[in-house]
Amino acid sequence: MLRSKTIVLGVTGGIAAYKAAEIASQLTQAGAKVNVIMTEEAVQFISAVTFRALTGRPVVTEMFDLASEFSIEHVSLAKAADIVVIAPTTANIIAKLAAGIADEMLCCTVLATKAPVLIAPAMETNMYTNPITQENLSKLRARDFVIVGPATGWLASGKVGLGRLADINDIIGSVRQVLGRGGDLTGRHIVVTAGGTQEPVDPVRYLSNRSSGKMGYALAEAARDRGAKVTLISAPTSLPEPVGVNVIRVCTAEEMRQAVENVTLQADSLIMAAAVADYRPRKRAKDKIKKGKAGLTLELECTSDILGTVKGDFIKVGFAAESSNVLENARAKLKQKRLDLVVANDITASDSGFGTDTNRVTIIDRKGKIDSLPLLSKREVADRVLDQVAALLPKPKSRRSSKC
Length: 404
Ligand SMILES: Cc1cc2nc3c(=O)[nH]c(=O)nc-3n(C[C@H](O)[C@H](O)[C@H](O)COP(=O)(O)O)c2cc1C
Known about the structure:
Blueprint: E1 6-11, H1 19-29, E2 33-38, H2 42-45, H3 48-55, E3 59-60, H4 69-72, H5 76-80, E4 83-89, H6 91-99, H7 105-112, E5 117-121, H8 125-129, H9 131-142, E6 146-147, E7 151-154, E8 160-164, H10 168-179, E9 189-194, E10 199-200, E11 206-207, H11 214-224, E12 229-234, E13 246-249, H12 253-263, E14 269-272, E15 279-281, E16 300-302, H13 306-309, E17 315-322, H14 326-336, E18 341-346, E19 358-359, E20 361-365, E21 370-372, E22 376-377, H15 378-392
Parallel strand pairs: 1-2, 1-4, 2-3, 4-5, 5-6, 9-12, 9-14, 12-13, 14-17, 17-18
Antiparallel strand pairs: 7-8, 10-11, 15-16, 18-20, 19-22, 20-21
The site of flavin mononucleotide has 15 residues, from helix 6.
């Protein structure tokens, strides 16, 4: 979704300016055309050459640089931008933006653009919490600036506190979310489940599976980037929470069932990418089970069938992770659980299924139509699944009421 986008990346004179290099690099790698504007002070912290090399594009450092193609018409970058991102944003630039000052190229561009503007403040805690900065930020918020962060953490002063530049994943996730506004899932509420549930055996042990949660998280991010309101019901994973997504953390299959039932009351689609335990220990030991000479027999009972029992007026999508007879088993799941779509994958392949960044899946619909996809990144698979979900959703106007 960033491939065809033109992004102005403003870099200002704060200690976190070096992190803007990573942002420029990631946006460029994702296919965006990144035009960097640096303030005069930013150049004290990081060289324009770095951004020139990372983006492969000219970098603006002065308003009156006659050699720069952008300076000739001082608002040309503002016109071309799909979004203006300022990361890091100093207290000084926040104040200038709030006051409408245009005495250098970055502020001039923000004043002149019709594109959304996202700022990521970064500064010492006292500068950030100062009522003047807070008042300036309130003004910008009221004018629809998107403000990401700051985070709490290690600051250049050696203290730990509020004012650190937001995580780069959160900044780029927010850029994607803003650019996705008005996408084909706008006004829709998509519920996604992810990860492998954990069924406690005793206070230290549990039964679980190899699911990493990557497929579900990719689905949640892709739906967000297409304008949807997204609820992600996540079993424990090591993945960072996607920005702009409502994350509900659960542990067991039973907790996941309850969360799914609650949130699907207002859902347009439920996509169950979680690997939900089929069995759990019949009893959870109160104390840690001690090692003994004899073996241990655990008695297991079935967990509830979430996909098979959840009811409601939404598009239901299941995942079938199979190690044999993949299509046959997936078709049976589609029928038994009355799904609209089933996404089948062979978990025995080394480049597909649990833990990998790629997946090779086959999507089967109710009419038996089969879409066998090649090996793709999980994000690409997510978009292909959402293409089919979007096509199945009733037109918004024909619905009784919007769900979000
Ligand atoms: C070493 C050093 C680090 C600084 N770090 C920050 C910072 O993280 N955030 C901030 O708002 N200002 C910071 N400042 C102050 C700004 O550099 C100063 O306000 C400058 O005028 C900002 O210019 P600009 O907003 O045009 O880029 C720092 C100053 C110095 C000397």
